[in-house]
Design goal:
Oligomer: homotetramer
Order of helices and strands of chain A: HHEHEHHEHEHEHEEHHHEEHEEH
Largest interface: A-B, 53 and 53 residues
Strand order of the largest sheet of chain A: 1-7-6-5-4-2-3
Helix content of chain A: 40-55%
CATH class of the largest domain in chain A: Alpha Beta
Number of helices of chain A: 13
Structural class of chain A: alpha/beta
CATH superfamily of the largest domain in chain A: Type I PLP-dependent aspartate aminotransferase-like (Major domain)
Low-confidence stretches of chain A: none
Mean pLDDT of chain A: 97
Largest sheet of chain A: 7 strands, mixed
Shape of chain A: globular
């Protein structure tokens, strides 16, 4: 079984079906088609407020294009060192923003804590034009270490941002896993908590290639669309991005998929712990960070289980990621193979 | 019938089938999968030389990422004013290259002519660091006005580039239509003629969303891959870009689709000319630019034919674009509706 | 005598004296000194309205930093092909603006004409995010070909900008020569005529190295100061930029210098015409573009007169530039040497 | 007395004299003049090897333009958090390099230590195109905290760079103070120790506004000159940059000025320590970081001594900077005022 990442999974049946349907006929290009035109309405309903939705094919594009409208070329983006934008997107943020700088601050399990954030921002030396002033805070939900901010935690961060006049951006590559875990309304951890823009991930959770920029401040739309076009992220057959996205949020496919992945991860966690493993920290979503002794790690590998070491958390820590298509019966069957 | 553009067409059956197959199982991310690993070999065979292939989802990305490796931030890219990079990609070239400038020169039917190009380059005032020196020539094959460079024409341009020490880039958004028209080997209008890098278009001609950067100078690969990642164009489920691309070149699907589109355009041209229209200029591929009197234009529209006016060529000039899925019997049937 | 350019001249005595004085004591850095603090007031008085002044050491910096606050990375700057920003500043505009594109339009003697500008802007194809929309118009006063816009001409251009919602920028590398020629109030060709920002040149006209960004829209100040710092144009010993600038506008040194240069050019023009030369076009300021037969050109050179051919205006056209320090008696003495 | 910074000092007499001389006549622009042409030779002699010298007006320009030729837009620059490029140059490095990222690592008194550097580089997670690979190391000599790298220390860092294939850049805003302290040959802490490019500061140490980019790898010259021009840092009256620089290195003015500043700082240090202060760390050059109790700080201020608190080193730490023009007798006289 492959727990290397959730992006090893294929697309889900609902999305294949929708794409197949949308493969039967012609339609206007660049977002003038009927499907694309439904996105704003569908997502406004989902979030319970007016939003603008700009789909792109990757999470890096969704994150960096969003930030390009939230921060000036002279400003800073506060984030955790583990943040995807800091660790996994090359120099994308500087590229899209025209030079903005990532200002990293620590926090447990890849989460920023509101009080520490407040102090961090207040403690930034202000030397006027010489220094880089924070203009935006970026958090990841669920985090890169598999933990989830509660609505209260996001709210507290939103309050800090308001206090200091900063924008709040959320990288939601695994937003569905967070909502499935929290069982909250999507509004509770986004616009109601002060989030200005969200990368609403779908690729890892059942799509082929689409993440959506969701703007709670719809005035940013025109600028975001310009940034999307000039960076080559406006698809001519835009309807296929929209089709994936619409299928993904129709009938709560996104929550179903994420709930399944979370459950699979929980089943795996139990199983591993029964065999002597321990979690490096709480697993809220579909990612586990687990302490394994070498014997157990070897046994797992020998039985065909794939996963990655995670040395930044310790020499014996490994990451397991479940996905929308992880077969839970097969997860349970690992038990026999390693007993 | 919709002749607004070839990007109103859906994807073709071969690509749907390949995607559907590739939707059944897990596979490594970011290009480590089996399908992605086959691309270099497949395209090297297709072009008859060693090439490196980097798939991206859009033509703008393919063009601009390519140029970012061919020109410095201080240099110029010579192109026709009608070039897609000049007219339809916002400020993408400057963005990806870090500031390179488009230097436009005229030529009939959107084509650069080698002699004029030679003079244009020689005539650029060289004021050292003050002025912008041409570093690259970019041509489009087939052109934005539906014409096709012959192998001799590309060769002559390649020779001019060599003479002046410039790189040669080809925007091949409709490369297939050009090859189908010329019935030449793809090598004859690319590396053998001096082309350093090619945007090999697939989206308009039957794919969902994939164009390939084909590097004849494979030493550019590492830099192109960095530029792709940092601009958000590296897909996590990379196999779905590769799957489209591999299906597209397998069994000559690309040439079959393009040949069909070209033929449909020729049938339409004949039909329109029989009704008093005339071509604004020769139509080599799947795009027609046609002089229509108002009566005929109205009749066509009334019978459900969609197409765009093309005012840059004249007040009564219209563009019609056929695609891989244009129904030729239905094209012929237009005759009755407008007689 | 050296008529190669006005930037071959040294600095003028008033500026040397001021610098020498300011070399006697310590003072706060980065613009907190007394001299720097006087600039806004001095220039507000000079222009008859509240302005913000940001000095930099070069005209390219003044132009490009100004434009970075007037145009987005996705927009276009309309200018004449002869404009310094188009011909002599490498890829500076794209660099500072993050990608904005120069949209060139012709006009006689390097001037944009309001009616033609109106048509040019109206005629720009608007394909939304695909195309580049004009956001700013840039004119040069005096122009690169030595002509000067009248207040009415600038006003008319200002009106066109307002009509289309564009910003108006003026490259005033030789602003003093224009004002000396027009004998108008500086306000008449700037803010009263719709100019948003001006590069107020001093270097060519008697300074060592300082041009000032003059903002009639003072709300741009903070952003301009950020752009200045991060591009390395904020001097630590800022007072020496300010000192040059203040000396330059004190006691109308700027107008005295420019008036002298204009007069010297006029004297030279008369002299050359008496010897059979003819002006390629009217000379309003300190630059002459002159048709010379080879005999006369050779005679001039033989007598130690330096000047440049200007092939873009014709095979026998040459440029002569007078400066604040051109010795008019020596100009007159050329007569004997070439008779 | 003003110890706020060395950039509160004016220019030195030798430079005023040279500028005054160079103000008497015309000369070619943009570096074609006689003085500018002497720079490469003068600095090659100074460094004992062939170098290329490109003067600019500020340290930020010298640093950022240099780095733009040493690192790709996708790469990282390793530096100390206290580095001027990290703390005091806004987002300049990202701007000039097209996106390169600063990778900060700690070290005592603002110095990188070779062993720790080796481990830091080795420890950078290499995730290929996803992560940012170090391409260059940047050190400051003398450091922002007033300490100086010995030749052995620079050599050790140079060796680490060679081992990992990285470039080595030196910010020498106070290079003269370092050389004056070490009494070494300038070669010993630059090219012989592996430095590829140096910002050779003059502004703080007696110039009006000039720092030189000194390239030990002269193949970088053409690119650096393009970067200088397009960023607005090529002065038209280039000779005045060159004049300052040539006067600065003639007759060892640079070492005389720096030696004086270092001595003044040492005298001040002794005096303060006699009054109960203690150095926060060793003072190698012209900057002191001193622990003062409030009484002493108040007394000093009351007696007209200016200096800044330095909270990053502690609540009671203050910075004092001496300059080329600090009057040592007056420094000694402080004693009476605070006794």
């Amino acid at each position: 079984m492959n727990f290397a990442s959730d992006n090893v999974s294929p697309f889900c049946p609902e999305i294949l079906e929708a794409l197949t349907d949308e493969g039967k006929s012609n339609a206007p290009a660049y977002g003038s088609d009927d499907i694309s035109q439904q996105l704003d309405t569908a997502f406004s309903k989902l979030f319970g407020t007016d939003v603008a939705v700009i789909p792109v094919a990757t999470g890096t594009a969704a994150n960096c294009i969003s930030l390009s409208a939230l921060v000036s070329p002279y400003g800073g983006v506060v984030c955790h060192p583990e943040a995807h934008i800091n660790e996994d997107e090359s120099t994308g943020v500087a590229f899209f923003t025209g030079g903005a700088k990532l200002l990293t601050m620590e926090g447990p399990t890849a989460k920023l804590e509101a009080d520490a954030l407040d102090q961090f921002i207040a403690g930034q030396v202000n030397r006027g034009v010489h220094s880089v002033a924070p203009e935006c805070v970026a958090i990841t939900q669920a985090t890169e270490l598999g933990t989830v901010y509660t609505p209260d935690e996001v709210n507290a961060i939103g309050d800090v941002c308001k206090k200091h006049g900063l924008k709040l951006f959320m990288d939601g590559a695994r937003f569905a896993n967070a909502v499935a875990h929290l069982r909250c309304h999507p509004a509770d951890i986004t616009w109601k908590a002060g989030v200005d823009a969200l990368s609403f991930g779908a690729t890892k959770n059942g799509a082929m290639a689409v993440d959506a920029i969701v703007l709670f401040d719809t005035s940013l739309k025109a600028r975001i669309e310009q940034a999307r076009k000039r960076s080559g992220h406006l698809h001519s057959k835009h309807r296929y991005l929209a089709t994936q996205l619409l299928a993904y949020v129709t009938n709560d496919v996104w929550l179903k998929n994420a709930g399944h992945a979370n459950e699979a991860a929980a089943v795996l966690a139990d199983l591993l712990c029964q065999h002597g493993a321990s979690l490096a920290h709480r697993a809220d979503g579909n990612e586990l960070f687990v302490n394994l002794d070498l014997g157990l790690a070897d046994k797992l590998r020998a039985s065909g289980v794939q996963f990655h070491p995670w040395p930044s958390l310790g020499a014996h820590v490994y990451r397991f990621v479940a996905a929308w298509n992880t077969n839970i019966a097969q997860v349970r069957a690992i038990n026999e193979r390693i007993s």
